[in-house]
Amino acid sequence: MILKKNEKSPLAVLRLYIIHSSTQCYLHGRHPINYSKLLSGYMKSGDIINAEKLFEEIPQRDVVSWSVMIHGYNRNGFRRKSMELFSQMRVSSLVPTSFTMVGVLVSVAGLGDPVLGRCVHGLILKNGIDHDFRVATALLNAYAKCGNVVDSYRVFGQLENPGLVSCSAIVSGFVYNDLFQEAVVLFNQFRRLGLVPNAATVLTLIRACIKLESRLLCESFHGIVVKISLVLDVAVNNSVLGMYSSMLDLDSATRVFEGMEFKDVISWTTMINLLVCLEQASDALVIFRHMRKTGISQDVVVAMNLISACSILGDLRRGREIHAQAIVNGFQSELPLKNSIIAMYSKCSDLDSSRTMFDQTNQKSLVSWTAMILGCVQNGYPRESLNLLIQMRGEETFCFDSVMLIGVLSACSELALLELCQQLHCHAFRSGFPQYRSVQNSLISAYSKCGDMEPAYNVFKEMIYIRDIISWNAIINGYGINGHGEIAVTLFHEMRNGLENPDAATYLSVLNACSHSGLLEDGLLIFNQMVEGHTIRHIEDHCACIVDLLARAGCLSDASEFVNRFMEKTGPNSWRALLNGCRLHGNVELAELAARMVYELDPGEPGQVVLLSNVYASLERFQDAEALRAGMKKKELIKNPGISLINSVVSHIG
Questions:
Q1: What is the DSSP string of 526-541?
Q2: Are strands 643-646 and 649-652 parallel, antiparallel or unpaired?
Q3: Which of 127, 195, 399, 575 could lock 597 by a disulfide, CB 3.0 to 4.6 Å apart?
Q4: Which range among 462-471, 530-539, 625-634 shows the weakest confidence by mean pLDDT?
């Protein structure tokens, strides 16, 4: 028999053993021993084996003994065992009491069997105990847990004077069956009749408020909590805190949290999790330090949130510390925590530690594999991520989810594996992912990076009702990087005329497209629109695109004037673009100035030396070019080699 683990007091169990031992001599006599109390004690302590032994030893079992065992099995989670015992009781010709039937109905609710619920209801009617409010409340709860809200409400309607427990049960039943609006309406009716909700009712209704996503409703229920003086109940406060947390309302959540007289680990965890969700990771770590000062021990959920905070910050040192704390606290066997640690090390660029943690995980879930595959892609190892995918397919029976698919598509786009992108597209279609916006956006990006814009546009065209700003950015950028600047500009104007407003990434994509296609007028016009609109703050990359656009077109003086005008917004990339334009058009003086500026802003990058050397070489100043190259070797500056992919075979061409 598989027994459910229960925390129990050793002294309490020892007392039960002593009482049980002292009664053995009376088992076959007529001593009036209270078997029921002893059975109840065993069941409450989780000692099912001794409860069963005692039950078997009782010479004449009465209805109370049977009922205690039925309730005891329920208490320990053995619903089916409870029903089997009830069937045995029926065979013994004992008539069940209301106490017995409440236990049976709890079993029915746990099993969720509507047919069984109706059978038990029939027996209740037969025995004439349907008017007992405890039985009726248990019955309506059982119907609700079996998904039969209609019969549940019918039972409730037959109650003459429903009390708070019955009203709370029917509201809970509506919420359990996702009838959130109906639950709130029903509660308002009860309020008008003078019902004052208790903590259990409020906890149920807050769940409904969260699901309905109504700020006004949430604030109204918070007001009720304050009005009926439930603010001292930790569970209710935690629920209110969770309600505001679900809305990502940090100000309201902070007020509730700071106003709590008593805080438990759930209170602190909810607050830490909210800050992590809002990517305020430093504040989350500060809250954790305050929690430790109060003496509350962290649980595995806190550890997972702290690991996520370190991932956001990219703080490898602190991530390792929290990993060590998790091991000390005995959380190392928790798979969700292991998955979080794998992801954290990857995001902190420590792929070796991530892989070590992954290899040490014996029972890997789909999340484990996804975290490792995404880690490889994010750290520039797309081929290794595909090898992991092949390994997973060989060792596991997992089906792709949308997150895994996006990660693998990213790897394919990095390696320009068009055929594999097509296979994954087919898999996405077959698995029902076309309605997943993130998957469709990844497909557009992957096809674009593979140089095939026709399927990329087909995917975009099919996303009529689910397009977002990322979809537009992906298709505009795709046409831009593949040399179709005119189409990119057309799509940009189509986007502006529609419902989507361009963001900074949209402007960067279309300006890049103009730069690569030599669309000088379009690029300048779009940049002016962005600056004059005052809705998008232009950054260095936007300025670098304009400098590159002007420099490629031979407008070097205009490019230089632009750099000087937007000096606070320009960086090394703008000067590199100007330097490259000087190389194309042979302007040595401006090239030397641009090279000096790049060196001042980014002294560790040798690219400007190579570009200036090429300028000298194009003007047949070979001695100057050679001197620059020699100085570069002397300083041990090495230019990163270029990489070309031909049939997915890597070739270094630098």
A1: HHHHHHHH-SS---HH
A2: antiparallel
A3: 575
A4: 625-634
What is the rounded average pLDDT for all residues in the chain? 86
Looking at residue 2, its amino acid is I
Return d(Cα 510, Cα 480) in angstroms, integer.
Answer: 7
Smallest CA-to-CA distance from 202 within 181, 224, 180 is with 224
Residue 160 is classified by DSSP as: S
**Cβ 335 vs Cβ 342: under 8 Å:** no
Neighbours of 156 (CB within 10 A): 23
pLDDT higher than threshold 60 for residue 445: yes
Distance from C-alpha of 157 to C-alpha of 279, rounded to nearest angstrom: 49
Q: When comparing pLDDT for 385 and 18, which is higher?
A: 385
Backbone angles phi, psi at 652, to 5 degrees: -85, 125
Average pLDDT over residues 98-121: 93
Closest listed residue to residue 445, CA positions, set 429, 424, 430: 424
pLDDT at 249: 94
d(CA 575, CA 509): 20
Residue of 10 and 127 predicted with greater confidence: 127
Give the Cα separation of 286 and 288 in Å (integer). Answer: 5
Determine the average pLDDT of the residues in 594-604.
Answer: 71
H/E stretch holding 268: helix 265-277
Is 80 exceeded by the pLDDT of residue 641? no
CA distance 156 to 137: 8
Rounded mean pLDDT of 167-187?
93
Beta carbons within 8 Å of 325's beta carbon, 6+ residues apart: 298, 303
pTM for this model (two decimals)? 0.79
Number of neighbours of residue 261 by Cβ within 10 angstroms: 8
Q: Which of 531, 575, 528 is nearest to 556 (CA)?
A: 575
Cα dihedral across residues 407, 413, 414, 417: positive or negative = positive
3-state secondary structure (DSSP) of residue 194:
coil
